[in-house]
TrEMBL record:
GO terms for cellular component: mitochondrion. PROSITE patterns: ALDEHYDE_DEHYDR_CYS (PS00070). The lineage of its organism: Eukaryota, Metazoa, Chordata, Craniata, Vertebrata. Transmembrane segments: none annotated. The keyword Nucleotide-binding does not apply. This is Methylmalonate-semialdehyde/malonate-semialdehyde dehydrogenase [acylating], mitochondrial.
């Protein structure tokens, strides 16, 4: 209530921390199997994006706490990596069931802290759960290779083994799915794991940690620290950490890739995006327009695979008015309200940034076909809402095209031919995802062959691969060489040991030293 009053009076709540600290719940650290209160003096407020009320505080962990967490990972490593793979598998089989049983509670926590609709939040958990389910096949995924009789009496075989302590740094937009891309894959391979959730949405990760503990994971196997830059630098620098998985913006991702790599760690870094939906005039119109609207405005555009850019080719230009009409039907509301399609943005800063990118488009000659800047959401006047917005007449030099907007804004470009559309997509620095809408197989084949983008949908607007494949963003959207989850995820979290063994019969014993290279 105090926080609400401060908000109404427009007093930044962090300025008055001492006055309300006892009434706001704090996020705990998870160290050595215990949920502990941080001893820090520095806290970050967590807000409900639909109201901007302060709903909790997250600590910036102290140096001692971060050291305790990584030391706990190191101490737990020997027993965990030695545990039979069948026992690890059993823990993850229990874990996937616990996530399923608690999906509603996890989703509620996501909607409260992140803002997305409850149905979308359940999707967030579900897509992460699929990674956990996949991790349960570890007994097949970690198989090595063998080749008997390399030479007489000699066999070669490989073991796929864990690498040690691994770490994950997560973004705010998928509070369940992205942490679940990280620690389950790392742990099931036999590594221990240090996780730093986004400081804006830590609640869901803490629930996931509790469930992992309930599934029977030993103390110290997973540790969780909180914070911002200091925690990130700690992860990049600590010598016990062998690998870092990062998902977030380019600014942070490039920095973490460089700093972690310089320190000799493996780093996989999934970053920003500008995903194009190319609409051919032969596409199924009804299907295409619905897909485009859903993929541009779902989760208020705060998905790295959102189709934030449409390229209408040839006569598909004429579909624009209908696209606008369909978009008008979306309901903007708090994520926990029935019928909500588009929730709030994560923060007032994000809202201001999105609004200013819309304005930059207007200033540079784009036409606002639908303007969500002054949307009014009854009962949620303080929320970070921007309604669905469509900008037409956009050209590739405009800031609203060159920058990732990460909000409910669809920018629309036009092209005379498929070749022109392909060249626009390839000239954009990002390479996360794209989709083509067409009924012509040859057109689809040409597009999938010629665009330089990691994940392509053919009549599929958000082609996020299921976990038996990997998440394969490329170019400006990815740094590293092995991607998240799937076979590549296993590769990232393991190393290979190769054994060559010879068992000779007694009478074949070597009679003198062999000093030449064996051939
Ligand atoms: P973010 O980069 O602000 O934060 C991600 C993490 O990095 C957080 O844990 C944060 O504490 C830390 N961080 C933030 N700024 C930092 C800095 N300057 N130095 C070091 N660490 C820093 O990202 P976000 O706003 O939470 O997430 C949105 C971004 O993530 C978008 O750009 C989106 O496209 C991208 N994203 C990419 C994927 C993908 O798979 N490619 C998936 C989801 C989100």
């Amino acid at each position: 209530a105090i926080a609400r009053t401060l908000w109404r009076k427009k007093i930044p709540v962090h300025v008055c921390r001492m006055s309300y600290s006892s009434s706001v719940p704090t996020t705990k650290l998870f160290i050595d199997g215990k949920f502990v209160e941080s001893q820090t003096s520095e806290w970050i407020d967590i807000h409900n994006p639909a109201t901007n009320e302060v709903i909790g505080r997250v600590p910036k962990a102290t140096q001692e706490e971060m050291l305790a967490a990584v030391n706990s990972c190191s101490k737990a490593y020997s027993a965990w990596s030695d545990m039979s793979i069948l026992s690890r598998q059993q823990i993850f089989l229990r874990y996937q069931q616990l996530i399923k049983d608690n999906i509603k509670e996890l989703a509620k926590s996501i909607t409260l802290e992140q803002g997305k609709t409850l149905a979308d939040a359940e999707g967030d958990v579900f897509r992460g759960l699929q990674v956990v389910e996949h991790a349960c096949s570890i007994t097949s995924l970690m198989l090595g290779e063998t080749l008997p009789s390399i030479t007489k009496d000699m066999d070669t075989y490989t073991y796929r083994l864990p690498i040690g302590v691994c770490a994950g740094i997560a973004p705010f937009n998928f509070p369940a799915m992205i942490p679940l891309w990280m620690f389950p894959m790392g742990l099931v391979c036999g590594n221990t794991y240090l996780l730093k959730p986004s400081e804006r949405v830590p609640g869901c990760t803490m629930l996931l940690a509790r469930l992992l503990q309930d599934a029977g994971v030993p103390d110290g196997t997973l540790n969780i620290i909180h914070g911002q830059h200091a925690a990130v630098n700690f992860i990049c620098d600590h010598p016990a950490i062998k690998a870092i998985s990062f998902v977030g913006s380019n600014q942070a991702g490039e920095y973490i890739y460089e700093r972690g790599s310089k320190n000799g760690k493996r780093v996989q870094s999934n970053m920003g995006a500008k995903n194009h939906g190319v609409v051919m005039p032969d596409a199924n119109k009804e299907n295409t327009l619905n897909q485009l609207v859903g993929a541009a405005f779902g989760a208020a555009g705060q998905r790295c695979m959102a189709l934030s850019t449409a390229i209408l080719v040839g006569e598909a230009r004429d579909w624009l008015p209908e696209l606008v009409e369909r978009t008008k039907n979306l309901r903007v509301n708090a994520g926990d309200q029935p019928g909500a399609d588009v929730g709030p943005l994560i923060s007032p800063e994000a809202k201001n940034r999105v609004n200013s990118l819309i304005q930059s488009g207007v200033d540079e000659g784009a036409k606002v076909l639908l303007d969500g800047r002054n949307v009014h959401v009854k009962g949620y006047e303080n929320g970070n809402f921007v309604g669905p917005t469509i900008l037409g007449n956009v050209t590739p030099n405009m800031k609203c095209y060159t920058e990732e907007i990460f909000g409910p804004v669809l920018v629309v470009l036009e092209a005379d031919s498929l070749d022109e559309a392909i060249s626009m997509v390839n000239n954009n620095p990002y390479g996360n995802g794209t989709a083509i809408f067409t009924t012509n197989g040859a057109t689809a084949r040409k597009y999938t062959n010629e665009v330089d983008v990691g994940q392509i949908g053919v009549n599929v607007p958000i082609p996020v691969p299921l976990p038996m494949f990997s998440f394969t963003g490329s170019r400006g959207s990815f740094r590293g060489d092995t991607n998240f989850y799937g076979k590549q995820g296993i590769q990232f979290y393991t190393q290979i040991k190769t054994i060559t063994s010879q068992w000779k019969a007694e009478d074949a014993t070597l009679k003198s030293p062999a000093v030449t290279m064996p051939t």
